[in-house]
Amino acid sequence: MAKLEMKNLYYRYKGANKDVLKDVNCRFEGGQLNAIVGPSGSGKTTLLSIMAGLDKPTQGTITINNIDLNDLDLDEYRRDSVSMVFQAFQLFPLLTALENLSFPMEYKGMDKNQARERSKKILESLGIDGDKQFRYPSNLSGGEQQRVAIGRTLATGAKVILADEPTGNLNDENSYKIIDIFKRLAHEQGFCVIIVTHDMEIAEQSDNVWRIKDGTIEKIK
Ligand SMILES: Nc1ncnc2c1ncn2[C@@H]1O[C@H](COP(=O)(O)OP(=O)(O)OP(=O)(O)O)[C@@H](O)[C@H]1O
């Protein structure tokens, strides 16, 4: 199972005069739902960007399965090892729900029919079935759109899911559904799920909770 680990990690934005992340040490493992909480501006999104391979730490190391990201092809890492879910879903608006999953698979070289079949199965497992698969995102509810977005991350085959405020645009009922899906993916399929959230109730449902304050991180559950 995937393991993402940060050791003595610091980050400072170019031109800034102070570190946004300071001596961060934490480990996230497959099979568990992890939450990162903390006030606005504390460094949560910055840490997620580093884990996504979009930014490199100024100091310290980040490893996946004990391999330093510096020793990996970062394009490959971003494509195959990690996938992201966002607050605003970020689906392709001109593609149907099904195409939102199958298009990236075809782009990576999978046969068109195979990509469609695999996409259908993934969407069905997330409760997006029947005509909903053929609708454009704008004709789906927020909760349904977020489930399609989760489906898109599953379609990549990546075992680490990074979610930035994934329930931020959803009502309570849909938020719980999404967290339940993340829980099942972690507990039943071994995904390493890391969510950034402002919502302590959501965080409390996670196996592990980390709090960032002024760039330093501590495990609170
Ligand atoms: N590109 C940038 N250049 C300089 N400073 C930045 C940049 N992006 C973010 N920051 C600063 O880094 C700090 C951490 O920002 P970050 O977005 O990681 O916080 P956050 O905890 O995700 O906040 P929020 O909950 O409001 O999204 C903030 O002080 C922010 O102003």
From TrEMBL:
Similarity annotation: Belongs to the ABC transporter superfamily.
ABC transporter domain span: 4-220
Gene3D superfamilies the record matches: P-loop containing nucleotide triphosphate hydrolases
Key words, A-Z: ATP-binding, Nucleotide-binding, Transport
Keyword ATP-binding on entry: yes
Name assigned to this protein: Putative ABC transport system ATP-binding protein
Molecular function (Gene Ontology), one example: transmembrane transporter activity
Lineage: Bacteria, Bacillati, Bacillota, Tissierellia, Tissierellales
InterPro entries, A to Z: AAA+_ATPase, ABC_transporter-like_ATP-bd, ABC_transporter-like_CS, ABC_transpr_LolD-like, MacB-like_ATP-bd, P-loop_NTPase
Cited SUPFAM superfamilies: P-loop containing nucleoside triphosphate hydrolases
GO cellular component terms listed in the entry, alphabetical order: plasma membrane
SMART domains in alphabetical order: AAA
